[in-house]
């Protein structure tokens, strides 16, 4: 049994979320869709699903042969009441698969920015310990414009640029538009990997790099709180593996 982790870009891994889940004894099955891995055919031996970020958009199904199978897999996992978590592109894929809507933003939201919890966010167990107003890292040019049915009446969190920063569908499915999982090393590498995109917001890449020293420690602390809440609350204790042995499999399907 393992948590399936869908990755869509070599630098956008599960980061600190993967580390925390591993420390809690969870086994991760890493599926690198950008590297030719295939979406599993069924939910056998699947404890849950985590969908990471990436440069793709949900309206590019015809350009990526893995996208529709991933959308179908997400819906099947949600319908089976398995835990499903999506971050950035992953959140948009969840929204699309479950009947929500995603659209392009006039200006990308990039860099550290304030996120504010709604009433539903302040009372949600996954956000326990996260302040009403907090700073997270944003890196998206699309957004969820309509959350899927079956969730709270309004999103859990929002920002000035993006009203739906976090949403919940049912009891076991969460989408986060912002990144709470990136390590400092990931941030350093990601900013220089695509300077055209990261410089297309309201700050330059140099400004974003300088802001890491100012914000990263607090960002890491609050991000780890979310990671630990997800690890503790979203995945049942009886699905954890014994602490001995490696808990990460790199799965490369033919």
UniProtKB/TrEMBL annotation:
Residues 21-184 form the Glutamine amidotransferase domain. GO terms for cellular component: cytosol. It comes from the Bacteria. GO terms for molecular function: transferase activity. InterPro entries: ChyE-like (IPR044992), Class_I_gatase-like (IPR029062), GATASE (IPR017926). Keywords: Glutamine amidotransferase, Transferase. SUPFAM superfamilies: Class I glutamine amidotransferase-like. Pfam families: GATase. PANTHER family: GLUTAMINE AMIDOTRANSFERASE YLR126C-RELATED. This is GMP synthase-like glutamine amidotransferase. It comes from Algisphaera agarilytica.
